[in-house]
Amino acid sequence: MWGVKLVGASSTVFVHRPKRVRVVCAVAAVSILLLFTLIGTALTEVGEGVFRPGDQYAMIGLGVVFAAGIMLIARPRVQADETGIKVQNIVGGYQLPWSLVRKVSFDRGRPWLSLELENDDTVSVLAVQAVDREHAVHAVQCLRSLHAQNRA
User: Fold this and answer.
1) Contact, 33 vs 67, CB < 8 A?
2) Cα–Cα distances in Å, from 68 out to 11, 32, 43, 130, 131?
């Protein structure tokens, strides 16, 4: 089963990352880096030497920074086992025991999965996205199964 790592004799860890967003971000990051590298190398001394080597390196550096920023969007990940769930979103994350999670919710029309907590709070799980279709359905089924096993 994809996304499940065997840790011990009786313990399994479910790990899930979005597919489509990672592909789109990788293509966009490479494109941005290539574009800024092309612009940086194309900047030559024009007229009275407006663009110097430092300007060229700065353009390439900006490309690296923008590409890294785009790749942050591909960062989300969810990891679950019998003790709880660990959610890593674009910025920040949560580590929750199953006893705090009331429901694993992925309602129709919602872009990603959410966890409804016992204190009526909601945690978005950006790693499970509707655009991934069957990949997301599999993740929801695994998370709901782990939740049900460990809440009983």
Assistant:
1) yes
2) 35, 10, 23, 24, 23
* CB-side neighbour CA atoms (13 Å) of 92: 4
Alpha-carbon gap, residue 92 to 70, rounded angstroms: 16
Q: For strand 12-16 and strand 4-6, is the pairing parallel, antiparallel, or unpaired?
A: antiparallel
pLDDT tens-digit readout, 36-88: 999 888 877 665 656 777 888 999 999 999 999 999 999 999 999 999 999 99
Residues 59 and 130 in one domain: no
Structure tokens at 88: 């890593």
Quickly count: other Cβ atoms within 10 Å of residue 102's Cβ.
Answer: 16
Structural domain harbouring 55: 22-72
Residue 81 is encoded by which pair of tokens? 């086992």
CB 64, CB 33: distance < 8 Å: yes
Please state the domain count of the chain.
Answer: 2
Crossing angle of helices 20-42 and 53-72, in 10° steps, is 170
Same domain, 39 and 8: no
